[in-house]
Amino acid sequence: MATSSQSANASQQSPDAADNAPDAIALLTQDHQKVKEMFEQYEALSDRSLASKRKLALAICLELTKHATAEEEIFYPAVREASRKNADLVDEATVEHASAKDLIAQIVAMEPGEDLYDAKIKVLSEQIEHHVQEEEEEMFPKARDARLDLQSLGAEIAARKAQIDLPDMQSH
Question: Confidence class of residue 22 from pLDDT cuts 50, 70 and 90?
Fold first, then answer.
């Protein structure tokens, strides 16, 4: 469709980076599905599986941190810029991210078996489920309607996610 503009934008990356990357919405939706499956795996673990719980909880926190950071730095500004009508939606999503980041920081600083550890994972899961629903039902359709260069944004998001790690992850 708009391959000439995609090629122009892709030239800033490697020659085929934007053409080979999934579009931004497909990439973000894949992230949503991956995290949902990880939360389901966590729920299935026994109370005695402390090492597995810790490993999976940190993997969830890392995935959410990568996803949220890339959305806030790349996707949300593009959606906001596309239309002033999107400002409230982007603002709400940003506040939801801040709440999730707070819980992530608490979870990373804790060990499984501590009071409220499982509860914090459960609340994080519920918050993310609500957030995902709003993005997929409201924000993503508006981004498609705005005719954003989703291929280029997808390449930028993938590259940014590859750079992100959890703070203090090595201290545990």
Answer: confident
Spatial distance between the Cα atoms of 18 and 154, rounded to a whole number of angstroms: 7
Which of 96, 95, 118 is closest to 106 using CA atoms? 118
CB-based contact 92:71 (threshold 8 Å): no
**71: closest CA among 28, 41, 14, 13?**
28
Is the pTM higher than 0.90? The answer reads: no
Burial class (CB in 10 A: 0-12, 13-18, 19+), 51: exposed
User: Are residues 74 and 157 in contact, defined by beta-carbon separation less than 8 angstroms?
Assistant: yes
Average pLDDT, integer, range 126-144: 96
- Tracing tokens 């590259």 back to the chain, one arrives at 159
